Protein backbone atom coordinates (compact mmCIF):
# COMPACT_ATOMS: atom_id res chain seq x y z
CA UNK A 1 0.00 0.00 0.00
CA UNK A 2 1.32 3.45 -0.92
CA UNK A 3 1.65 5.58 2.18
CA UNK A 4 -0.54 8.69 1.86
CA UNK A 5 0.74 12.09 2.78
CA UNK A 6 -0.26 13.18 6.26
CA UNK A 7 -0.55 16.99 6.47
CA UNK A 8 2.50 18.43 8.25
CA UNK A 9 0.44 20.39 10.77
CA UNK A 10 -1.02 17.14 12.14
CA UNK A 11 2.51 16.26 13.29
CA UNK A 12 3.53 19.63 14.69
CA UNK A 13 5.22 19.41 18.08
CA UNK A 14 2.63 21.86 19.44
CA UNK A 15 -0.49 19.90 20.51
CA UNK A 16 -2.73 22.95 19.95
CA UNK A 17 -1.58 23.12 16.33
CA UNK A 18 -2.27 19.39 15.91
CA UNK A 19 -5.76 19.71 17.37
CA UNK A 20 -6.64 22.67 15.17
CA UNK A 21 -5.19 20.99 12.09
CA UNK A 22 -7.32 17.89 12.65
CA UNK A 23 -10.46 19.97 12.92
CA UNK A 24 -9.52 21.71 9.68
CA UNK A 25 -8.91 18.41 7.89
CA UNK A 26 -12.27 17.07 9.01
CA UNK A 27 -13.99 20.19 7.67
CA UNK A 28 -12.19 19.86 4.35
CA UNK A 29 -12.72 16.10 4.07
CA UNK A 30 -16.03 15.31 5.78
CA UNK A 31 -16.43 11.92 4.09
CA UNK A 32 -13.99 9.10 4.77
CA UNK A 33 -12.93 6.07 2.73
CA UNK A 34 -14.89 2.96 3.63
CA UNK A 35 -13.10 1.17 6.47
CA UNK A 36 -11.74 -2.31 5.78
CA UNK A 37 -11.62 -5.30 8.12
CA UNK A 38 -7.96 -4.70 8.93
CA UNK A 39 -6.17 -3.62 12.09
CA UNK A 40 -2.78 -2.32 13.16
CA UNK A 41 -2.72 -2.42 16.94
CA UNK A 42 1.00 -1.68 17.35
CA UNK A 43 1.99 1.75 15.99
CA UNK A 44 4.70 3.95 17.48
CA UNK A 45 4.28 7.72 17.34
CA UNK A 46 6.81 10.54 17.62
CA UNK A 47 6.46 10.26 21.41
CA UNK A 48 8.90 7.36 21.08
CA UNK A 49 10.03 7.09 17.46
CA UNK A 50 8.26 7.11 14.12
CA UNK A 51 10.34 7.40 10.91
CA UNK A 52 7.70 9.68 9.36
CA UNK A 53 7.49 11.72 12.56
CA UNK A 54 3.81 10.87 12.91
CA UNK A 55 2.03 12.17 15.99
CA UNK A 56 -0.82 10.26 17.61
CA UNK A 57 -3.16 12.53 15.65
CA UNK A 58 -1.22 11.84 12.47
CA UNK A 59 -1.54 8.10 13.03
CA UNK A 60 -5.31 8.37 13.52
CA UNK A 61 -5.61 10.40 10.31
CA UNK A 62 -3.47 7.86 8.47
CA UNK A 63 -5.84 5.10 9.61
CA UNK A 64 -8.86 7.06 8.42
CA UNK A 65 -7.38 7.83 5.01
CA UNK A 66 -6.23 4.27 4.38
CA UNK A 67 -9.39 2.59 5.62
CA UNK A 68 -7.81 0.92 8.66
CA UNK A 69 -10.75 0.09 10.90
CA UNK A 70 -8.85 -0.44 14.15
CA UNK A 71 -5.54 1.03 15.30
CA UNK A 72 -3.48 0.86 18.47
CA UNK A 73 -0.89 3.33 19.72
CA UNK A 74 2.17 1.85 21.44
CA UNK A 75 5.05 4.04 22.61
CA UNK A 76 8.20 3.17 24.51
CA UNK A 77 8.32 4.07 28.20
CA UNK A 78 5.61 6.77 28.11
CA UNK A 79 1.85 7.28 27.98
CA UNK A 80 2.20 10.81 26.58
CA UNK A 81 0.09 10.16 23.48
CA UNK A 82 -2.82 8.20 24.97
CA UNK A 83 -5.38 11.00 25.42
CA UNK A 84 -4.55 12.61 22.10
CA UNK A 85 -4.72 9.34 20.19
CA UNK A 86 -8.03 8.19 21.65
CA UNK A 87 -9.57 11.63 21.10
CA UNK A 88 -8.31 11.73 17.51
CA UNK A 89 -9.52 8.20 16.76
CA UNK A 90 -12.98 9.09 18.02
CA UNK A 91 -12.98 12.27 15.92
CA UNK A 92 -12.03 10.44 12.71
CA UNK A 93 -14.15 7.33 13.29
CA UNK A 94 -11.40 4.79 13.96
CA UNK A 95 -11.67 2.16 16.68
CA UNK A 96 -8.65 3.04 18.82
CA UNK A 97 -6.70 1.61 21.74
CA UNK A 98 -3.46 2.67 23.40
CA UNK A 99 -0.54 1.00 25.13
CA UNK A 100 3.05 1.19 26.32
CA UNK A 101 6.14 -0.91 25.63
CA UNK A 102 9.36 -1.27 27.58
CA UNK A 103 12.02 -3.81 28.52
CA UNK A 104 11.80 -5.70 31.79
CA UNK A 105 13.83 -8.39 33.52
CA UNK A 106 12.48 -11.89 34.09
CA UNK A 107 14.67 -13.72 36.65
CA UNK A 108 13.07 -17.11 35.95
CA UNK A 109 14.60 -16.90 32.44
CA UNK A 110 17.81 -15.10 33.44
CA UNK A 111 19.94 -17.65 31.57
CA UNK A 112 17.90 -17.59 28.35
CA UNK A 113 17.57 -15.13 25.52
CA UNK A 114 13.87 -14.37 25.03
CA UNK A 115 12.72 -11.63 22.64
CA UNK A 116 15.55 -9.11 23.08
CA UNK A 117 18.32 -10.56 20.91
CA UNK A 118 21.52 -11.40 22.77
CA UNK A 119 20.18 -10.25 26.15
CA UNK A 120 19.30 -13.19 28.43
CA UNK A 121 16.49 -12.51 30.87
CA UNK A 122 15.49 -9.27 29.14
CA UNK A 123 11.96 -9.15 27.85
CA UNK A 124 10.25 -6.66 25.56
CA UNK A 125 6.91 -6.36 27.30
CA UNK A 126 3.75 -4.30 26.94
CA UNK A 127 0.64 -2.92 28.56
CA UNK A 128 -2.49 -2.26 26.53
CA UNK A 129 -5.93 -0.76 27.00
CA UNK A 130 -4.92 2.51 28.69
CA UNK A 131 -7.52 5.26 28.70
CA UNK A 132 -5.51 8.21 30.02
CA UNK A 133 -2.04 9.70 29.72
CA UNK A 134 -2.14 10.36 33.47
CA UNK A 135 -1.31 7.50 35.82
CA UNK A 136 -3.10 7.34 39.19
CA UNK A 137 -1.01 8.42 42.20
CA UNK A 138 -0.09 4.85 43.16
CA UNK A 139 1.21 4.07 39.65
CA UNK A 140 2.69 7.46 38.71
CA UNK A 141 6.10 6.86 40.37
CA UNK A 142 6.60 3.71 38.30
CA UNK A 143 5.82 5.59 35.09
CA UNK A 144 8.22 8.34 36.15
CA UNK A 145 10.90 5.74 36.83
CA UNK A 146 10.55 4.30 33.31
CA UNK A 147 11.16 7.75 31.87
CA UNK A 148 14.07 8.41 34.24
CA UNK A 149 15.70 5.09 33.35
CA UNK A 150 15.43 5.91 29.65
CA UNK A 151 16.98 9.36 30.18
CA UNK A 152 19.86 7.85 32.14
CA UNK A 153 20.51 5.18 29.50
CA UNK A 154 20.51 7.80 26.75
CA UNK A 155 23.00 10.08 28.49
CA UNK A 156 25.32 7.19 29.24
CA UNK A 157 25.08 5.91 25.66
CA UNK A 158 25.85 9.35 24.22
CA UNK A 159 28.90 9.65 26.47
CA UNK A 160 30.26 6.32 25.21
CA UNK A 161 29.57 7.12 21.55
CA UNK A 162 31.09 10.59 21.90
CA UNK A 163 34.30 9.02 23.20
CA UNK A 164 34.51 6.79 20.13
CA UNK A 165 33.36 9.20 17.41
CA UNK A 166 35.21 12.35 18.56
CA UNK A 167 35.60 14.91 17.06
CA UNK A 168 32.00 14.18 16.03
CA UNK A 169 30.07 14.56 19.27
CA UNK A 170 26.55 15.49 20.30
CA UNK A 171 24.97 16.96 23.38
CA UNK A 172 22.05 14.80 24.51
CA UNK A 173 20.00 17.74 25.78
CA UNK A 174 20.82 20.23 23.02
CA UNK A 175 21.04 17.95 19.97
CA UNK A 176 18.89 14.90 20.69
CA UNK A 177 15.93 16.05 22.77
CA UNK A 178 14.79 18.70 20.25
CA UNK A 179 14.10 15.79 17.89
CA UNK A 180 11.29 14.67 20.20
CA UNK A 181 8.16 16.51 21.37
CA UNK A 182 8.34 15.48 25.04
CA UNK A 183 11.91 14.51 25.83
CA UNK A 184 11.54 10.76 25.34
CA UNK A 185 14.45 10.11 22.99
CA UNK A 186 15.36 6.68 21.66
CA UNK A 187 18.47 5.17 20.10
CA UNK A 188 17.10 6.10 16.69
CA UNK A 189 16.93 9.78 17.67
CA UNK A 190 20.51 9.57 18.92
CA UNK A 191 21.62 8.02 15.63
CA UNK A 192 19.92 10.84 13.70
CA UNK A 193 21.76 13.41 15.82
CA UNK A 194 25.16 11.83 15.08
CA UNK A 195 24.48 11.60 11.35
CA UNK A 196 23.51 15.28 11.33
CA UNK A 197 26.61 16.19 13.34
CA UNK A 198 28.89 14.38 10.88
CA UNK A 199 27.17 16.10 7.96
CA UNK A 200 27.83 19.46 9.58
CA UNK A 201 31.44 18.76 10.42
CA UNK A 202 32.71 17.08 7.26
CA UNK A 203 32.39 17.95 3.61
CA UNK A 204 32.79 14.22 2.96
CA UNK A 205 30.99 12.39 5.79
CA UNK A 206 31.22 9.10 3.87
CA UNK A 207 34.96 8.98 4.52
CA UNK A 208 34.41 9.57 8.23
CA UNK A 209 31.80 6.82 8.55
CA UNK A 210 33.82 4.37 6.43
CA UNK A 211 36.76 4.74 8.82
CA UNK A 212 34.80 4.73 12.09
CA UNK A 213 32.44 1.91 11.15
CA UNK A 214 35.15 -0.17 9.45
CA UNK A 215 33.35 -0.35 6.12
CA UNK A 216 35.08 -0.19 2.69
CA UNK A 217 34.78 3.27 1.21
CA UNK A 218 33.01 2.15 -1.97
CA UNK A 219 30.45 0.25 0.07
CA UNK A 220 29.93 3.23 2.36
CA UNK A 221 29.35 5.51 -0.63
CA UNK A 222 26.48 3.23 -1.66
CA UNK A 223 25.07 3.08 1.85
CA UNK A 224 25.13 6.88 2.07
CA UNK A 225 22.60 6.99 -0.76
CA UNK A 226 20.00 5.30 1.49
CA UNK A 227 19.41 7.28 4.71
CA UNK A 228 17.66 4.34 6.38
CA UNK A 229 20.54 2.01 5.56
CA UNK A 230 23.05 4.47 7.03
CA UNK A 231 21.00 4.90 10.18
CA UNK A 232 20.64 1.13 10.64
CA UNK A 233 24.38 0.61 10.13
CA UNK A 234 25.38 3.34 12.59
CA UNK A 235 23.01 1.90 15.18
CA UNK A 236 24.25 -1.65 14.62
CA UNK A 237 27.95 -0.82 14.70
CA UNK A 238 27.80 1.54 17.65
CA UNK A 239 24.81 0.77 19.87
CA UNK A 240 23.54 -2.76 19.40
CA UNK A 241 25.08 -5.94 20.78
CA UNK A 242 28.68 -6.18 19.61
CA UNK A 243 28.88 -2.43 18.94
CA UNK A 244 31.61 -0.30 20.42
CA UNK A 245 29.24 1.56 22.79
CA UNK A 246 27.07 -1.41 23.73
CA UNK A 247 26.85 -2.48 27.37
CA UNK A 248 25.34 -5.85 28.22
CA UNK A 249 22.27 -5.30 30.42
CA UNK A 250 21.92 -7.05 33.74
CA UNK A 251 19.18 -7.74 36.29
CA UNK A 252 19.15 -4.11 37.45
CA UNK A 253 19.18 -2.44 34.02
CA UNK A 254 15.41 -2.76 33.54
CA UNK A 255 12.57 -3.04 36.07
CA UNK A 256 11.21 -6.44 37.10
CA UNK A 257 8.16 -7.57 35.15
CA UNK A 258 6.10 -7.40 38.34
CA UNK A 259 6.85 -3.69 38.76
CA UNK A 260 5.77 -2.97 35.20
CA UNK A 261 2.58 -4.91 35.80
CA UNK A 262 1.87 -2.77 38.86
CA UNK A 263 1.93 0.30 36.60
CA UNK A 264 -0.35 -1.32 34.04
CA UNK A 265 -2.95 -2.71 36.41
CA UNK A 266 -2.78 0.48 38.48
CA UNK A 267 -4.06 2.23 35.34
CA UNK A 268 -6.79 -0.42 34.88
CA UNK A 269 -5.03 -1.61 31.71
CA UNK A 270 -3.93 -5.11 30.69
CA UNK A 271 -0.39 -6.56 30.84
CA UNK A 272 0.50 -7.93 27.41
CA UNK A 273 3.23 -10.44 26.56
CA UNK A 274 5.17 -9.92 23.34
CA UNK A 275 6.62 -12.48 20.93
CA UNK A 276 9.42 -12.30 18.38
CA UNK A 277 9.64 -15.42 16.19
CA UNK A 278 10.08 -18.52 18.34
CA UNK A 279 13.77 -19.10 17.63
CA UNK A 280 15.42 -17.99 20.87
CA UNK A 281 15.98 -20.42 23.73
CA UNK A 282 13.35 -18.61 25.78
CA UNK A 283 10.75 -18.61 23.03
CA UNK A 284 11.41 -22.26 22.31
CA UNK A 285 10.08 -22.77 25.85
CA UNK A 286 6.85 -20.84 25.26
CA UNK A 287 4.87 -23.62 26.91
CA UNK A 288 6.67 -22.60 30.10
CA UNK A 289 7.23 -18.88 29.45
CA UNK A 290 3.72 -17.84 28.50
CA UNK A 291 1.93 -19.58 31.41
CA UNK A 292 4.50 -17.97 33.71
CA UNK A 293 3.63 -14.53 32.36
CA UNK A 294 -0.08 -15.30 32.65
CA UNK A 295 0.47 -16.24 36.29
CA UNK A 296 2.16 -12.86 36.73
CA UNK A 297 -0.85 -11.08 35.20
CA UNK A 298 -0.51 -11.09 31.40
CA UNK A 299 -3.96 -10.85 29.81
CA UNK A 300 -3.12 -10.32 26.13
CA UNK A 301 -0.45 -11.31 23.62
CA UNK A 302 1.31 -9.24 20.95
CA UNK A 303 2.63 -10.52 17.62
CA UNK A 304 4.24 -8.73 14.65
CA UNK A 305 3.02 -11.07 11.88
CA UNK A 306 4.89 -9.68 8.87
CA UNK A 307 8.30 -10.81 10.07
CA UNK A 308 6.91 -14.29 10.66
CA UNK A 309 5.48 -15.03 7.23
CA UNK A 310 6.74 -12.45 4.72
CA UNK A 311 10.11 -14.19 4.38
CA UNK A 312 12.02 -14.76 1.13
CA UNK A 313 13.83 -17.96 2.12
CA UNK A 314 11.28 -20.80 1.76
CA UNK A 315 12.84 -23.02 4.43
CA UNK A 316 13.01 -20.20 6.96
CA UNK A 317 9.49 -19.14 6.05
CA UNK A 318 8.16 -22.64 6.67
CA UNK A 319 9.78 -22.73 10.11
CA UNK A 320 8.58 -19.25 11.03
CA UNK A 321 5.02 -20.00 9.95
CA UNK A 322 5.01 -23.19 11.99
CA UNK A 323 6.18 -21.21 15.02
CA UNK A 324 3.51 -18.56 14.39
CA UNK A 325 0.65 -21.02 14.15
CA UNK A 326 1.89 -22.88 17.24
CA UNK A 327 2.14 -19.78 19.41
CA UNK A 328 -1.30 -18.58 18.29
CA UNK A 329 -2.74 -21.94 19.35
CA UNK A 330 -0.95 -21.70 22.71
CA UNK A 331 -2.24 -18.17 23.32
CA UNK A 332 -5.78 -19.32 22.52
CA UNK A 333 -5.43 -22.24 24.93
CA UNK A 334 -4.43 -19.71 27.60
CA UNK A 335 -7.36 -17.38 26.77
CA UNK A 336 -5.09 -14.55 25.62
CA UNK A 337 -6.52 -12.19 22.98
CA UNK A 338 -3.90 -11.55 20.30
CA UNK A 339 -2.99 -8.04 19.18
CA UNK A 340 -1.09 -7.66 15.92
CA UNK A 341 0.57 -4.76 14.14
CA UNK A 342 3.60 -3.58 12.22
CA UNK A 343 5.27 -1.29 14.82
CA UNK A 344 5.90 1.52 12.29
CA UNK A 345 9.09 2.49 14.16
CA UNK A 346 11.55 1.82 11.36
CA UNK A 347 11.65 2.92 7.71
CA UNK A 348 9.97 0.53 5.32
CA UNK A 349 7.55 -1.09 7.74
CA UNK A 350 4.01 -1.52 6.44
CA UNK A 351 1.07 0.70 7.36
CA UNK A 352 -0.97 -2.41 8.07
CA UNK A 353 -0.54 -6.15 7.75
CA UNK A 354 -1.74 -7.95 4.63
CA UNK A 355 -4.80 -9.60 6.14
CA UNK A 356 -5.63 -11.18 2.78
CA UNK A 357 -2.33 -13.04 2.57
CA UNK A 358 -2.95 -16.80 2.28
CA UNK A 359 -0.42 -17.38 5.05
CA UNK A 360 -2.57 -15.40 7.49
CA UNK A 361 -5.87 -17.08 6.56
CA UNK A 362 -5.72 -19.59 9.46
CA UNK A 363 -5.18 -16.80 12.02
CA UNK A 364 -6.88 -13.79 10.45
CA UNK A 365 -10.09 -13.97 12.47
CA UNK A 366 -8.16 -14.47 15.70
CA UNK A 367 -6.14 -11.34 14.98
CA UNK A 368 -9.25 -9.28 14.24
CA UNK A 369 -10.98 -10.59 17.36
CA UNK A 370 -8.04 -9.34 19.42
CA UNK A 371 -8.29 -5.88 17.91
CA UNK A 372 -12.03 -5.67 18.56
CA UNK A 373 -11.45 -6.98 22.09
CA UNK A 374 -9.04 -4.26 23.15
CA UNK A 375 -11.14 -1.54 21.54
CA UNK A 376 -14.21 -2.94 23.32
CA UNK A 377 -12.39 -2.78 26.65
CA UNK A 378 -11.16 0.74 25.86
CA UNK A 379 -14.55 2.21 24.97
CA UNK A 380 -16.19 0.62 28.01
CA UNK A 381 -13.43 1.70 30.39
CA UNK A 382 -13.12 5.22 29.04
CA UNK A 383 -16.79 6.11 28.83
CA UNK A 384 -18.43 3.95 31.51
CA UNK A 385 -15.72 2.78 33.90
CA UNK A 386 -16.66 -0.79 32.98
CA UNK A 387 -13.43 -2.07 31.48
CA UNK A 388 -11.84 -5.50 31.71
CA UNK A 389 -10.35 -4.93 35.16
CA UNK A 390 -13.35 -3.18 36.69
CA UNK A 391 -15.22 -4.55 39.69
CA UNK A 392 -18.26 -4.84 37.41
CA UNK A 393 -16.40 -7.09 34.97
CA UNK A 394 -15.02 -9.27 37.74
CA UNK A 395 -18.54 -9.83 39.10
CA UNK A 396 -20.49 -10.07 35.83
CA UNK A 397 -17.81 -11.93 33.86
CA UNK A 398 -15.86 -14.06 36.33
CA UNK A 399 -13.74 -15.99 33.81
CA UNK A 400 -11.24 -14.57 31.37
CA UNK A 401 -12.89 -16.33 28.44
CA UNK A 402 -16.21 -14.72 29.34
CA UNK A 403 -14.56 -11.30 29.46
CA UNK A 404 -12.75 -11.89 26.18
CA UNK A 405 -16.01 -12.77 24.43
CA UNK A 406 -17.90 -9.85 25.99
CA UNK A 407 -15.40 -7.13 25.12
CA UNK A 408 -14.85 -8.54 21.63
CA UNK A 409 -18.61 -8.35 21.07
CA UNK A 410 -18.69 -4.80 22.42
CA UNK A 411 -15.85 -3.88 20.08
CA UNK A 412 -17.83 -5.10 17.10
CA UNK A 413 -21.15 -3.59 18.21
CA UNK A 414 -20.06 -0.10 19.30
CA UNK A 415 -18.83 2.23 16.56
CA UNK A 416 -16.54 5.13 17.50
CA UNK A 417 -19.33 7.63 17.00
CA UNK A 418 -21.18 9.97 19.31
CA UNK A 419 -24.23 7.69 19.12
CA UNK A 420 -22.21 4.58 19.95
CA UNK A 421 -20.46 6.25 22.86
CA UNK A 422 -23.76 7.63 24.16
CA UNK A 423 -25.04 4.05 24.44
CA UNK A 424 -21.98 3.07 26.45
CA UNK A 425 -22.36 6.04 28.77
CA UNK A 426 -26.02 5.15 29.34
CA UNK A 427 -25.21 1.67 30.67
CA UNK A 428 -26.26 1.12 34.27
CA UNK A 429 -23.66 -0.55 36.51
CA UNK A 430 -26.45 -2.81 37.82
CA UNK A 431 -26.88 -4.40 34.36
CA UNK A 432 -25.60 -7.89 33.81
CA UNK A 433 -23.45 -8.62 30.76
CA UNK A 434 -26.31 -9.90 28.60
CA UNK A 435 -28.43 -6.82 29.30
CA UNK A 436 -25.46 -4.57 28.54
CA UNK A 437 -24.92 -6.22 25.16
CA UNK A 438 -28.63 -5.96 24.38
CA UNK A 439 -28.62 -2.27 25.21
CA UNK A 440 -25.57 -1.66 23.05
CA UNK A 441 -27.08 -3.55 20.12
CA UNK A 442 -30.41 -1.69 20.28
CA UNK A 443 -31.14 0.68 17.36
TL;DR?
By secondary structure, the chain is α/β, with parallel strands linked by helices.
Mind explaining what this structure looks like?
- The protein folds into 2 domains: 245 residues, Metal-dependent hydrolases (TIM Barrel, Alpha-Beta Barrel), CATH 3.20.20.140; 94 residues, no CATH class.
- Helix content is 48%, strand content 11%.
- The chain has 18 helices and 7 strands.
- It has a 7-stranded mixed sheet.
- Helix 1 packs parallel to helix 3 and helix 2 runs parallel beside helix 3.
- The chain is globular and about 70 Å long.
- The mean pLDDT is 96.
Order of helices and strands: HEHEHEEHHHHHHHEHEHHEHHHHH
Strand arrangement, largest sheet? 1-2-3-4-5-6-7
Shape: globular
Quickly give the CATH architecture of the largest domain. Alpha-Beta Barrel
Give me the Rg, rounded.
22 Å
**Percent of residues in beta strands?**
5-15%
- Regarding quaternary structure, what we see is single chain
Specify the helix fraction band. 40-55%
Largest sheet: 7 strands, mixed
Number of domains: 2
**What would you give as the CATH superfamily of the largest domain?**
Metal-dependent hydrolases
Strand tally, please? 7
Distance between the termini: 36 Å
Mean pLDDT: 96
With helices defined by DSSP (H or I, 4 residues minimum), what is the helix count? Answer: 18
Uncertain runs: none
CATH topology of the largest domain: TIM Barrel
CATH class of the largest domain: Alpha Beta
Specify the structural class: alpha/beta
Amino acid sequence: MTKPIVPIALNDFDPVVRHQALAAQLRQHPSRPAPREVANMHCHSFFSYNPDNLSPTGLAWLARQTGIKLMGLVDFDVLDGVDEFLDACQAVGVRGAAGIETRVFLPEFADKEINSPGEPGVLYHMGTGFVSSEAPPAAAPILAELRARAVKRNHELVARVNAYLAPVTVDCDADVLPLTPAGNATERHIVAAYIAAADRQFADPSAFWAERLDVPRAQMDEIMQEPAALANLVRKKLMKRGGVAYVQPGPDTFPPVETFHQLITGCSALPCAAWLDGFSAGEQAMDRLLPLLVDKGARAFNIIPDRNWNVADPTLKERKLANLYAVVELAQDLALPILVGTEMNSPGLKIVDDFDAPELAPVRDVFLDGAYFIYGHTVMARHAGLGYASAWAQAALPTRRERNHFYTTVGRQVPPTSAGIAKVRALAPAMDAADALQALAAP
